[in-house]
């Protein structure tokens, strides 16, 4: 682990992974200056909301090595918490955020305790089942959950007295939340806690032999990912103004897992890249849902076979090799070594 | 780092290039359509732009509309929602804010429509949707001037009316074919938003007709093996099994039901006799079908043939739910008449005109909206005898909802 071996360079080394993401997000925040269409802004908001959930999923999958196929259900818990609180207690957006994050975290813990006892593929199946179960519960929840019709969410989102319901403002707010999620995810990755999670990912038994409480940390990672999902759910509910169970069933969960795998779960730029790619690919290439699924499937197979660390790591490798081709032999060898093991992976 | 920065700048500009300004043309009135032209709801989705597009063509071919002394042509701007709520919302934002449509039709999916209304209503866009589930939000308070759904109109009858006319028609048509008065009915229903909502009304309508309904059996959407549900239904020894509401699922379930001999007769909601004939379906027991609202394969409605001839000639495919196009086609003409009457495209004056007009459509010679912006008209029910003969009749809706 480079950060441990070179304490003086650790902060700079760690920042090198975050800075490009923040720069890209800053550029994305400038997009409204180009007077984009409202269709673009709307799709970008949906993509951004997904990216926030993806940062949580990247902590779970990328750092801890646990794949959840029920992550949309945790987003749903957050969204329904916001809608029910707004309906029953007239709770606004900002109060709903911590409440929904807490509710999703609590649900993640409830699901995680029995599910993580089995681990591996069984955990994937259990989270998938949880997603289906939640959809069934919401569908049959009567007036309390709005049944299959779902719930309306009324009331404006305000920030320092400004109405954030305007599409451009909501877009900027979502970009800010994505930046906060990226920073939070980065902080977790570069903390001792993150290193513990990676130790569990690489070798559970070895980690346990070193005194790490593997079960507790795995549940902890699931809870952390639930916090991200809960916040994502609140943003989604307030953006759409209406939520229903089908939005949080298993299929949206598969899409989230797909996004994080294509982008790259271990890199801080991965969730951002995966979220944007999956949201805009059908739009740019004018693909219908069937064609989209074929393209995603092919992408996923290609990523798994050719770019196991995800698209961003693959692109990084290509650029490093291109740069190395113009360098003297010794430097080229150093760059080649670096390209085969990206800094985040080495950690 | 520089490369990453260049990538970021390129990405931002590429994404920004998707932006384009709204175009405004003189004498053109734009009507938006949001529908599932791809994805899982495509069967019903493609009927929506087909119905609206036909009406737009008919109006333009007749010279357009005269509003305030000026003649306007209509232009349909359709967007595929891909059966995805995020795309439906993005499409609505685009149509309302960028394209600046005067009215929107769609979507055929209930929860999409509710989310779309959050955009169309504050923007004062006249919004028609053929979802009877809109009754949940169309209340005297919500539709009054200044109310949150003042510009939203339900182009399908209230569900107690549709269910009432359907239940009455099914029982009336099946009785002579069965040779006795059916007494026991079992409902098999898709367990989604629409299925849950609709089945509660149809259950009450059957009870109001004196039926014993021992069970409503829900099946998960996308079910292909109906045998567990049919076995359960058969054990109740029903005179009629009512498949409610997804026509595509119903066509999957019926052969299994016939093989199992689950009931003495069947009712297939939303399956047109045209599909029955085209697929060369047959049954050794009577089978009733209903259309939303008028059938294309066989109809007792005198205007239906001319309409569906024009509809299919325009390139629309023959489908289980082709008749759903009439939940939109008539209302483009209705809206055009309202604009002419109002003498303006002002949304408030248009709403006033819509609420006072009696429009002659294909579905009915007297289409009107009630004070909560819901339309009333008959529903067509047909029945295929074991020999293959099909008879149809337009069933008028009950005046009042049955007491529960």
From TrEMBL, chain A:
Keywords: Cell membrane, Membrane, Transmembrane, Transmembrane helix. The chain crosses the membrane at residues 12-34, 40-61, 68-86, 92-113, 120-138, 170-189, 219-241, 253-282, 294-319. It comes from the Bacteria. CDD domains: TM_PBP1_LivM_like. It is a multi-pass membrane protein. Its main location: membrane. InterPro entries: ABC_transp_permease (IPR001851), LivM-like (IPR043428). One of its GO terms (molecular function) is branched-chain amino acid transmembrane transporter activity. GO terms for cellular component: plasma membrane. It is found in: Cell membrane. PANTHER family: HIGH-AFFINITY BRANCHED-CHAIN AMINO ACID TRANSPORT SYSTEM PERMEASE, HIGH-AFFINITY BRANCHED-CHAIN AMINO ACID TRANSPORT SYSTEM PERMEASE PROTEIN LIVM. This is Inner-membrane translocator. It comes from Mesorhizobium amorphae CCNWGS0123.
UniProtKB/TrEMBL annotation, chain B:
InterPro entries: BCAA_transport, Leu-bd, Peripla_BP_I. GO terms for biological process: amino acid transport. The keyword Nucleus does not apply. Residues 29-381 form the Leucine-binding protein domain. Keywords: Amino-acid transport, Signal, Transport. It comes from the Bacteria. Residues 1-24 form the signal peptide. The keyword Signal applies. PANTHER family: LEUCINE-SPECIFIC-BINDING PROTEIN (PTHR30483), PERIPLASMIC BINDING PROTEIN OF ABC TRANSPORTER FOR NATURAL AMINO ACIDS (PTHR30483:SF6). Belongs to the leucine-binding protein family. This is Branched chain amino acid ABC transporter periplasmic ligand-binding protein. It comes from Mesorhizobium amorphae CCNWGS0123. The lineage of its organism: Bacteria, Pseudomonadati, Pseudomonadota, Alphaproteobacteria, Hyphomicrobiales.
